[in-house]
Design goal:
Strand content: 15-25%
Radius of gyration: 20 Å
Helix content: 25-40%
Bound molecules: protoporphyrin IX containing FE
Distance between the termini: 26 Å
Number of helices: 13
Structural class: alpha+beta
Largest sheet: 7 strands, antiparallel
Order of helices and strands: HEHEHEEEHEEHHHEHHEEHHHH
């Protein structure tokens, strides 16, 4: 069925909202009443209709507006999209993967036609109809990663694999939870994860890296990450911290429901066929507390997760200032009933 795309903003007047149908498909990420980092990876396979796993690259009602927001960020700061010269083949791998997944998953919105290396790509929601030669960047209006990144919800990082490590050598990153591509580009797996507390000591990154280095072609994997954001702002980058950092001081017991958002990242990892690089898709979903508590078991569980979060994670996720108000607000939705395992 064709998706009805919303017209909305992720800045200034913040008109972003989820429709009731979109709330029902929100990827609530907590299988338990408390949360700690772990190597929470599982095969990225298709799931039930009406969930974010219906297709392997998810497109939802926010697509068109998210792409408009990305265009604004790139206009202000072109360094949000970077690729080192040796990543050109991986850029093409990425373009192919995303076009194929979208055309297969949403034929009413996207069509890919191949005649040898001559490809035609139609993206109806964004009004794009381009013919180009696969592998020849001069036949596209911009490099392949930027071209497809401007048409894909979520940030894309492409990591090169060499010396038994992964290197962040390309990306298009405009919807990130306070990290910078421009700062991280060229770093390896342990280096860019340097600021994360507790997980290094617990061997989480060592195990995750070992697993990823052996990721086979055609068997993508996924995990969830989460944090919180004040106002439905996609671009919470260090570059723009002066614009959003102070939002954290605006939360009051009265406006928690509207202002405080759960920010869930569905992260998928794909081996790329020609380059042997890996595509890391970080897809961000936002939902405010009013929306979250419309599902009673989510309200109950999030109250418990937030209330029992280790201090190191509270600090790292930047939620210190408004956590207590949010926990107090959510307590109205927690009747103390036992919750079952799973979301
Ligand atoms: C955080 C990138 C895979 C676990 C981060 C950050 C980046 C990042 C840039 C932010 C670090 C900062 O504060 O500056 C990536 C990339 C990956 C990848 C490009 C794939 C190639 C993984 C995997 C795990 C993982 C497989 C599994 C354990 C984490 C955790 C955090 C994190 C726990 C902290 C998140 C939070 O509390 O908000 N990652 N990551 N990452 N990453 Fe990864």
């Amino acid at each position: 069925m064709a998706i009805v795309f919303r017209q909305e903003t992720f800045r200034d007047d913040f008109t972003y909202r989820n429709s009731p149908e979109n709330i029902r498909r929100f990827p609530f990420p907590f299988p338990d009443d408390n949360y700690m980092y772990s190597v929470n990876m599982e095969p990225h396979v298709k799931g039930a209709k009406g969930t974010v796993f219906e297709n392997l690259i998810d497109v939802d009602e926010h697509y068109v507006s998210e792409m408009a927001d990305r265009a604004l960020v790139l206009k202000q700061d072109p360094l949000r999209c970077q690729a080192l010269p040796h990543m050109m083949q991986a850029q093409w791998d990425t373009l192919e993967l995303i076009m194929e997944q979208k055309a297969e998953g949403y034929p009413e919105h996207f069509t890919l036609t191949k005649d040898g290396n001559r490809w035609r790509w139609i993206n109806r929601p964004l009004g794009i109809d381009d013919t180009f030669t696969f592998g020849d960047a001069t036949t596209l209006p911009m490099e392949p990663l930027e071209y497809i990144g401007r048409q894909t919800q979520g940030d894309l990082a492409i990591v090169d694999q060499r010396e038994n490590n992964l290197w962040m050598d390309a990306g298009i990153v405009t919807t990130q939870a306070d990290w910078s591509l421009d700062f991280d580009v060229g770093m390896n797996f342990m280096e860019w994860h340097g600021p994360v507390p507790l997980a290094h000591q617990q061997g989480v990154f060592e195990r995750a890296l070992k697993f990823l280095l052996n990721l086979p072609l055609g068997k993508p994997t996924r995990r969830f990450n989460w944090t919180m954001t004040i106002n439905p702002r996609l671009d919470t980058s260090p570059e723009n911290f002066p614009k959003w950092g102070t939002d954290r001081t605006t939360v009051t017991p009265e406006n928690v429901g509207e202002k405080v958002h759960l920010r869930v990242e569905l992260q998928t990892l794909w081996r790329l066929p020609r380059s042997n690089a890996m595509l890391f898709v970080i897809r961000c979903y936002l939902m405010n507390m009013n929306e979250l508590v419309t599902v009673p078991k989510w309200g109950r569980r999030f109250h418990r997760v937030l209330g029992s979060l280790p201090p190191e994670l509270i600090d790292y996720k930047g939620i210190t200032r408004y956590r207590d108000d949010t926990v107090a607000w959510l307590s109205k939705y927690d009747d103390g009933a036992p919750t079952s395992a799973g979301t």
